[in-house]
Each structure stands twice: as structure tokens, then as C-alpha cells.
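Late entry, iron/sulfur cluster complex.
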Amino acid sequence: MPLEEIGWLRRGACRSSDPDLFFPLAPSPLQEARAKAICAGCQVMEECRSYALRAGESEGIWGGLTAVERRRTRFPAGWRNSAAAS
Ligand code: SF4
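Prediction complete; structure with ligand written out below:
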């Protein structure tokens, strides 16, 4: 990925956090909540979330969203039916 596309990452609040919080080997509700709390105070959360949705990042927490939450945002319930109808 081009560096200019993720340059904002240098200003991310997670930069000095434990990477396991954002890319855990064994995800847990506590780890997820702690990562999301860091994202909530991050000055580049909108850029981060937008990038992750656009790029289809399939792992980790980006912009305060888990991979499952990003999938639901990109493909809301019923999207297949509405795509087939058009
Ligand atoms: S929104 Fe979260 S994952 Fe994205 S840069 Fe900020 S702290 Fe890191």
C-alpha cells in the first residue's frame, strides 16, 4: 500500500500501544473494549476507519471497528437481495 495513503497512521493513538490489543491472537471482549477506548480518543479515527473500510482490511481493529463490524458496515444485512433486485 502506498505510504501516502496511510501517512495519518503516524498520528494514531495506537502507535505507542501494545499491538496485541489491535491484532490479538486470541480476541476477547476486554481486549476489544480496551482497543476501542484508545480509538475513541484518536485524532485520526475517521481517516483510519475510512481507509480500513475502503481497503477491506480483514484483520484487527481499525477506526474503532472490529473486522466483523467492518464487514457489517460494508455489507449490511440484505445487501445481496437488494443487489439482485436492481
Ligand atoms: S483509530 Fe484506532 S486503530 Fe486507527 S490509528 Fe487511531 S488508535 Fe489506531
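The chain has one domain: 3-85. Will revisit in the morning.
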